[in-house]
Amino acid sequence: MTSLKVENDHSGDRAVGEGYQRGLGARQIQMIAIGGAIGTGLFLGAGKAISKAGPSLVLAYAIAGLVIFFIMRALGELLMYRPVSGSFSEYAREFVGPFAGFVTGWTYWLFWVVTGITEVTAAATYMTYWWDIPQWISALVFTVVLYGANLISVKLFGELEFWFSMVKVTAIVGMILICAGILTIGFSDAGDTASVSHLWADGGFFPQGIGGTVATLQIVMFAFLAVELVGVTAGESKDPEKTLPKAINTVPWRIAVFYVGALVMILSVVPWTHFKPGVSPFVAAFEQMGLGVGAAIVNFVVLTAALSSCNSGMYSTGRMLRDLALNGQGPRLFTRLTKTGTPLVGTTFSACLMLVGVWINYQWPGEAFDKVVSFATISGMWAWIMILVSQIRYRAKADRGELPQSSFKAPGAPFTSWFALLFIFGVIVMMGVDPEARVSLYCAPLWALILGVSYLVLKARDPENAAFKR
């Protein structure tokens, strides 16, 4: 079976060859791109990272952010060459091989299932701020509600994500302005002690040494996971040639404002020693300022952020399973769409697996987040690796005249792509050194074995679908 090529359909509502509705407009794509990277990793994971690295965490986010920009520009080049819904696995099939596409599709699906568990876990943790209820109950309710939300049309999904992201963006900008006011005017309980000198006065900029900063990179990279989500929306964007490049080019200022800027302001108002793992630094900062109501508001915002990311996860898993099925690398029943263009079977299957998060929260309510974050990181980074390798191979073929040039070429490529690859492999090595993150590397070979055996079975039963043909 041939891989389906999606042509740009400006005259109709559906993506040719896939059956999806082109219901995502420019403002929705922009906010999905902005909000996709603002979630648990920043709002909850940053607390642990601050305790490990201190103010130097700002530098870690800046360097990792540059790498993320290289990855996104590589993805943008591929998207303008051929905008398809199952972008990562499609490009891996074409430029690396059918097995690479098979592995990428299923691994990215697994990433979002695991991420969904992570986000539901975070949301359940935030609920304990107001009510002393078991985490697993909150996790169950959130999973069921978000599953129901994903039965709507893609246009309504985009509208919900637009407002979810607007809440997150508004909250972070508001927090930055409040911190700026405390630093300049001096109001609140933290007004007398707030100073940018906190960035170097409490043990220096590297209070835990450079090793402590390096050790946080897997947490930092997890925070950036989901920036590539904009690629999954390619098959449902109304005008991908305009909306996708514009969304990708916003990556630098997104990172500068929402990560680097926010952390600089928080750590200037409240010393890094006041933060601890498992507690959102945003909530902790407002509590230290004596703004109790502000802390409650921020807790609501980070709850929204976690639910938004989980909602995006359910959206992605259904599309990725359908792409695999369309290419004969997954069960045919995943190809079915509702009248509104929703991959109901794939979304339902993924949501059922996300219920594992309920069990994790029941068994280990205090450790659930850490248990799944490292595995989500390694599986998500596989998609980045395939994006970079595919872009390097595509650029080589385009330069030789074998394929048309992309209208959105990545600057500095392929050198920037090679640099990003080396950085990612370095993070993976550091994960192997960290005892807490090492569990993901133990799981990765098992997952690779499962995929390898599954592909051999597929190849034996249906050799045609084990080969890529355009």
Automatic annotation (TrEMBL):
Species annotation: Streptomyces tamarix
Pfam family of the protein (one): AA_permease
Keywords recorded for this protein, A-Z: Amino-acid transport, Cell membrane, Membrane, Transmembrane, Transmembrane helix, Transport
Domain of life from the UniProt record: Bacteria
Topology relative to the membrane: Multi-pass membrane protein
Annotated TM spans: 31-50, 56-75, 95-115, 135-157, 169-188, 208-230, 251-270, 290-310, 341-360, 372-394, 415-433, 439-458
Family membership: Belongs to the amino acid-polyamine-organocation (APC) superfamily. Amino acid transporter (AAT) (TC 2.A.3.1) family.
Keyword Cell wall biogenesis/degradation: no
Annotated localization: Cell membrane
Gene3D superfamilies per record: Amino acid/polyamine transporter I
InterPro entries hit by this protein: AA-permease/SLC12A_dom (IPR004841), Amino_acid_permease_CS (IPR004840)
Organism ancestry: Bacteria, Bacillati, Actinomycetota, Actinomycetes, Kitasatosporales
Protein name: Amino acid permease
Domain Amino acid permease/ SLC12A: 29-459
Main localization (coarse): membrane
